[in-house]
Amino acid sequence: MVRAEHVVMAGSVLALAVLVVLPLAFLGWGSVTADGRLTLENFRDALSSRLYVQALRNSLILGLATAVLSVAIGLPLAWAVSRTNVPGKPFIHFTAVISYLTPPFLTAIAFVNLFSPRAGLVNRFFRDVLAMPGFTFDVFSMAGLILVTVPHTFPFVYLLAASALESVDASMEESAQILGAGRWRTALAVTGPLVAPALLSGALVAFVNAIALFGSQAIVGLPGRVFTLPTRIYALFDYPPQYGLASALSLIFVALTVAALYLQRRYLARRSYVTLGGKGSRPQLVDLGPARWGVFGFCAAVFVVAVAAPYLTLLAVSVSRSWGLHFWENLTLQHYRFVLLEYDVTRRAIWNSLILASATATLAVLLGSFVGWLDLRTTLRGRKLLDYVSLIPLGLPGIVVAVALIQFWLRVPLPIYGSLLIILLAYTGRFVPLGVRSANAAFRQIDPSLEETARVTGAGWLRTFCSVTLPLARPGLFAGWLLVFVPALQELSASVLLFSSGSITLAVAVYNLYETGALGPVSALAIVTMLIITAALVVATRLGRGQAGIPRGERGAVAQ
Amino acid sequence: MAGIQIERVTKRFGAVTAVRDLSLEIGDREFVTLLGPSGCGKTTLLRLIAGFMTPDAGSIRVGARMLSTPTAVVPPERRGMGMVFQNYAVWPHKTVYQNVAFGLEVRKVSRGDAQARVVRVLELVNLAGLEGRYPSELSGGQQQRVALARSLVVEPDILLLDEPLSNLDAKLRERMRWELKELQRRTGITFVYVTHDQSEAMALSDRIAVMHGGEIMQLGAPRLVYTRPANKTVADFMGLVNLLPAQVVTFAGDDSMVAVGGEHPIAVALPPGTVAGQTVQVAVRPESVRLIPLSAAGTPGVVPGKIAEVTFLGNIIDCYVTLDDGTRIRAQVDSGRVLEVGQAVGVEFDSRQASVFSA
Fold it and tell me: Do residues B210 and B291 both lie within one domain?
C-alpha cells in the first residue's frame, strides 16, 4: 500500500533535486569542463587573473568591514533597547526592522542621488553653496559601497544580540555583582562571554549577506570601478558568455560563504548557552541618567542614515522635475504616472513580481511543510538528509543560484530559459530554507499528543492534519510565507541574469531604469516597491493579528 | 557581628505594594526563613537586603553600617554578602573551578591562596574532583552545590538564599536540606532563607517569618508558629488545618468551653476579650484529631460523627468525618486502624493543639 508519507517524501525529493541538487551538480560540472573535456583551467583563470583576484579581495574587504560596522552599530542599539532606560525603544526597534525590509538597491540609488561626485545633492551643497569642496564624498568607492551596505546588515547583529541579551537571566549577572564585581567587571566576565556567540553569529550573517548583495555592488561599485565577485560573474554573461569561468567563480564565491556559515555553526554549536535556566527574570535596566540622550542621539543618527535619508531622498527625487538644490520648485507626479500607467515594462514588472513573490512564498512554505513534517512526524530513512539538503541554499548567493540554473536548464531540453518559470524556480530554490525553518518551528511547537488524541478519537490521518495540525501551525506558516514574500518581491541578484523582456521583475526594472539614467522614474518605482511591501505587511498583520506576529528573534534566526 | 536590622521598609511596584512597613531583626549567626506563598513579598525583601532594590521607605542596616535608605543604597558588590539563586545561576561558560574562584579573583586573592580556598570549599560541599567540569556536565544537585560553594568561598558574614532547593527532586531536596543546616552550624554564617515550602522552613530555621501581602504575619520558632499560629492565614499556610465553626459556651481564659458540631462542648483556650455566645473558629490540625469508639460518646469533650471518606496513605489513614450539624472534619490517624465509610465514631480534639480565631 502506498502511504501518504511515501508520496510526500517522493515529492519533496523530486522538488529538491530539481531546485537545488541538480543545478548545483551542473554548476560543479560546468566549472571543471571546457568544450566537453575535463579541465581545471577555469579555476586557474579565476585564481590567476588580476581581475578576479581583485574582485575576491574587494568582496572580502566589503564583507569584513560591513561585519565590523554592523557590530559597531547593532550591538549598542541592542544593548540600549534591552538593558537601558534609553527613550524611544519602539523607534529604535522600528529603525532596525525598516532597515532590514528596505530593498538594498533602493538605499544605493538614494545615496547616489546624495553623494554622486558631480550631481549629488550633498556634494553640490558643500561645493557650490558653501564652497567647501573638502567636505564632498564620492559614493562610487569602497567606502561608499560599505556605507550603502551596512544599513541592511546591522539589523542581523541587532536582532541576534538583542534576543541574546534578553535571554541572559538576570541572576547570572547578579551573582557576579553580589560577589563584588562592579558593572564593567560583570559585563566583561559574565554578560560578554554569554552573548558572544550570538554576536559573532550576527557578524558572520552580516558578512554573508553583504558580499551577496548584487544591487548595491552594481549600482555603487561599477561606476567607481570597485569590482566584486557578483559583479564580475555578472559581467561574464556579456556576449560571448563565459559559462565555465562564471561557474568556477561562483564556486569560489560559495566556498567563501560556506566557510563563514560553517564557522558560525561550529562556534554556536560548541558554545551555545541558549537554555539559560528556568524561571527567567529580566535584568534590571541600567539608568543612564542624562547620558541616555546621548545614546538616543546615536540611535537617531542611525535612523537618519539608514531610513530617513534614503526615503526622503527617493521621495524628493520621485516628485521633482529636475533633481538639484532647488528641486521643490517643480513638483510633479508625472514619474508615478509614467511607471504605473504609461510605461508597459514597469507595469509588467510589478505584476510579474507580485505573481512571482506570491507563488514563491506558497511553494517554499508548502515544500518546507513537507520537509518539516517528514522530519518531525515520520521515521522514514533519509528525512534528516532531506532537511539538510533543503538548507543548502543558505550558502548560495542569488547570482550563484542563477548561474547554476542556467547551467542546468541550458542542457535540459525544456525551453524554460527566459520564462517566468525559471525565475520562479530560482526564487523557490533560494528561499526554500526560510520555508523549511518556519514550518519546522511551527510543527515543532505542536505536541504530537495533540494529533494522537485526534487519531484515538477516530479521525483519520488527513482529517487530523486538516483539523488539528494545520490550524495550530497556521500562524507559524503564515509568518513563514511573509518571510519569503518580502525578499522575493525585491529579488535582484538572481533575476538580473534570468529575466527576459517578458519576465522582467520589479528590481530588474528599477536597475535597468537606473542604468538609463532616468532617476525620477527609478525613484518613483522604488517608492512603489516599498509601498507594496508595506501593504503586504499591513494586510498580513491584520489577517494574522494576535497569532501570526513574527517573534523578534525568529527573523534573525531564520535569516541565518 | 552580622545581624540585620530592617526597619519599617516599604517597597512598591507601581500600584502594588510588595513590602509594607516591615520591620525585622535578624541576629548574628541566626537562620531565619522568610516563608510565604508566591507574591507575598519574600523575594522582594531578600533582594532589598542584597541591595538589588532601593526601598521606598525605611532602612536596612547590618550592625552599625547603614546599607539601604530611600536615598542611598550601598550597591550589592560592596555589601560582602553571598547569595544563592533559585536557578543556581552557575555561569555556563566557566568551569566549576572558575565559577567558584571568581569572587576571590575580584577580591584580588593571590593565585595560590585562592586555589587552596577553592579546594577546601569544594570539599565542604562534596564536589572535590569536579573542578574542570562545565556546568552542563553536572546534575542539578551538583550545580546547586557549585552555587553554594561560590557564595561560601568568599566567607560572607551573611548568606541569602532564594528558594535554592525548589528545582531539585524530592529526595535530593531532603539531603541538601540536611547539608545546609549542617553547613550553617559549621560556618556560623547568618542565613536568610526564602521558601514557600513550610516543611523546609521548619526543618532548617531558628526562626520563621511567615509573610503575607508584604507583611510579616508571625515571627517565631518553627514549633511555635506551627502549634500556635497567630491567625488563620498562618494556620492555613503552615500545613493542613480544620477550621470548625463554634460557639463560646463559657469564657475562662485557658479553660474555656466552646460548642462544635451541634451542641457538643469541648475545652479550649480562648484569647482574652472573648465573650459567651460569640461565634468563633477552632483551628485544629488533622493529626490532632482522635477517633474513638462511639461507645465512649456522651463523655465530655467527645463529639459524635460519621465517617464519610477513607484514604489509605501507607503511613497514615486520611479520612473525613461528618458531624451532626454537617461540619466535615479531616483526621489523620494511625494506619493500623480499621475504618469504614458510614461507621459512627466519636471525635476527640487535642485541645492543647487547637487555636481559636474570631470568625
Answer: no
Residues B9 and B119 in one domain: yes
Q: Is the pLDDT of residue B47 over 90?
A: yes
- Domain co-membership, B129 together with B201: yes
Express each pLDDT in B229-255 by its tens digit.
999 999 988 888 998 889 898 888 788
Q: What does the angle CA B63 – CA B66 – CA B70 come to, to the nearest 5 degrees?
A: 145
Last residue of a domain, one of B194, B210, B236: B236
Q: How far is A335 from chain B (nearest CA, A)?
A: 54
Regions of chain A short of the pLDDT cut 70: 1-2, 268-283, 544-560
**Which of B183, B209, B236 is where one domain is finished?**
B236
Give B154's contacts in chain A (Cβ within 8 Å): 179-180
Question: What are the residues whose beta carbons fall under 8 Å from the beta carbon of B210, sequence distance 6 or more?
Answer: B35, B36, B216, B217, B218, B219, B225, B233, B234, B237, B238
In angstroms, the CA A86 to CA A80 distance is: 6
**Cell numbers standing for residue B269:** 483556650
Half-sphere exposure of A311 (CA within 13 A, CB side): 15
DSSP one-letter string for B138-163: S-HHHHHHHHHHHHHTT--SEEEEES
Q: Answer yes or no: do B166 and B271 share one domain.
A: no
Distant-in-sequence, close-in-space partners of B144: CB < 8 Å, separation ≥ 6: B84, B88, B164, B165, B167, B168, B176
Number of separate domains in chain B: 2
Is the distance from CB of B132 to CB of B145 less than 8 angstroms?
no
Q: Would you call B185 helix, strand, or coil by DSSP? A: helix
By the 8 A CB rule, do B150 and B83 touch?
no
Question: Domain with B265 in it: what CATH number?
Answer: 2.40.50.140
The pLDDT tens digits for A390-414 are 888 888 888 888 888 888 888 887 7
Give Cα separations from A172 to B91, B103, B130 (angstroms).
7, 14, 21
Residue A33 pLDDT: 83
B299 and B253 in one domain?
yes
Interface of B to A at Cβ within 8 Å reads 50, 52, 75-83, 85-89, 91-93, 102-103, 106-107, 147, 150-151, 154, 160, 167
CATH number of the domain that B150 lies in?
A: 3.40.50.300
* B309 SS3 class: strand
**Taking a C-beta distance cutoff of 8 angstroms, is the pair B298, B252 a contact?**
no
Q: What is the spatial order of strands in the sheet that B316-323 belongs to?
A: B289-293, B344-349, B302-312, B316-323, B328-334
Residues B12 and B155 in one domain: yes
Of A169, A171, A193, the CB nearest to B93: A193
- Which one of B82, B106, B150 has the shortest CB-CB distance to A185? B106
Distance CA A390, CA A373 (A): 13
pTM for the predicted model, two decimal places: 0.80
Q: How far apart are CA A246 and CA A239, in angstroms?
A: 13
- Give the residue numbers spanning the domain of B101: 4-236
pLDDT at A275: 44
pLDDT tens string B277-327: 888 999 999 999 988 887 755 677 888 899 999 999 988 999 999 998 888
Distance CA A102, CA A311 (A): 9
Tens of pLDDT along B107-158?
Answer: 999 999 999 999 988 988 888 899 999 998 898 889 989 998 999 898 899 9
Separation of alpha carbons B67 and B63, rounded Å: 10
Q: What is the pLDDT of residues A254-311, one digit of tens each?
A: 888 888 888 877 776 555 554 444 445 666 777 788 888 999 999 999 999 999 999 9
Contact with chain B for residue A194, Cβ under 8 A: yes
Kindly report the CA angle at B17 between B15 and B18, in degrees rounded to 5? Answer: 130
Strands B215-220 and B242-250, by their bridges, are unpaired
Are B330 and B240 a contacting pair, CB within 8 Å? yes
**Which grid coordinates are listed for A213?**
548583495
